[in-house]
């Protein structure tokens, strides 16, 4: 599955947000055992109304949404890269994530101490980014020692790694995070394997006061501007409200939202923003037993998409019977779609599209 790390300075609302995310009724209602894997790791259902529509048409007994993992990564403070705060463990935690949700304090509250003594989300973002850049530089330096040795020994992969590490280092020394480096197609895989902290895509989460939850405020506007300049994404959320909503039943939550002038829970927006940030898509498997959503990267071909369900599906892949979501819904289900000639047989080269309803045929 895909994993988002929640980072930010202390007291910005990370834990509040994490609790809201993982305790929400929506996260749990969805017929899969909600699990807190570890105290700071939780799985969340990705909200997708299409899945309910498909289940209704097919009369599926069970609805199983696709999931996303969130990790609450505490301990990032100024000096963290020097081993202050929680030290290296949390850097390792960040390294394992696919993307970063960077929570920024965009609310004033005299009762909640700000570690830097003022509310300035753009400056806060820089504090964290600087720590991550320093940590990257340190790890690159360490790794280069080994890699240079391997290059001398004639290791071809090491040649590529050395080149990429030096490119990243040049950017960092220039004050730019590794995500600003443009990487050739041939280098993309090796680049990702470097797991540089500042190469991960960022979603800025503006934690605003209750009154600003629908509109945002001056602080969140500055963050939005910063995000736009960096080509990053941002969302406005009130972690405290979200935590309150997460305690409510679905219909109560809906009423509460409309009273606040919100169309949907901020958490839904947050999860979907994460999905977009990671260039993820959803395909569906639909039958009388269950309707289920599966997550793939954009551009995934049919056998690899099948592999998300089970490794054997990929190995023995024969073909995928495919119905586009719109056809499935407009025509009223699998059988009518088939009769209308809208079920296609697709082979190994087929690139799965968002919303595809699929059946896989495979050899055991
Ligand atoms: P963390 O250290 O980043 O995990 O921060 P917490 O989630 O523990 O929150 C720190 C404090 O700020 C707690 O007392 C929260 O109740 C409070 N807090 C979190 N979000 C908000 C918010 O949106 N508004 C206000 N006024 N307080 C908040």
From TrEMBL:
Residues 279-362 form the TGS domain. Its cofactor is Mg(2+). It comes from the Bacteria. Residues 2-257 form the OBG-type G domain. ATP binds at residues 11-16. InterPro entries: ATPase_YchF/OLA1, Beta-grasp_dom_sf, G_OBG, GTP-bd, P-loop_NTPase, TGS, TGS-like, TGS-like_dom_sf. GO terms for cellular component: cytoplasm. The keyword Oxidoreductase does not apply. The keyword ATP-binding applies. Pfam families: MMR_HSR1, YchF-GTPase_C. One of its GO terms (molecular function) is ATP hydrolysis activity. SUPFAM superfamilies: P-loop containing nucleoside triphosphate hydrolases (SSF52540), TGS-like (SSF81271). Keywords: ATP-binding, Magnesium, Metal-binding, Nucleotide-binding. ATPase that binds to both the 70S ribosome and the 50S ribosomal subunit in a nucleotide-independent manner. PANTHER family: OBG GTPASE FAMILY, OBG-TYPE G DOMAIN-CONTAINING PROTEIN. Belongs to the TRAFAC class OBG-HflX-like GTPase superfamily. OBG GTPase family. YchF/OLA1 subfamily. This is Ribosome-binding ATPase YchF. It comes from Litoreibacter arenae DSM 19593.
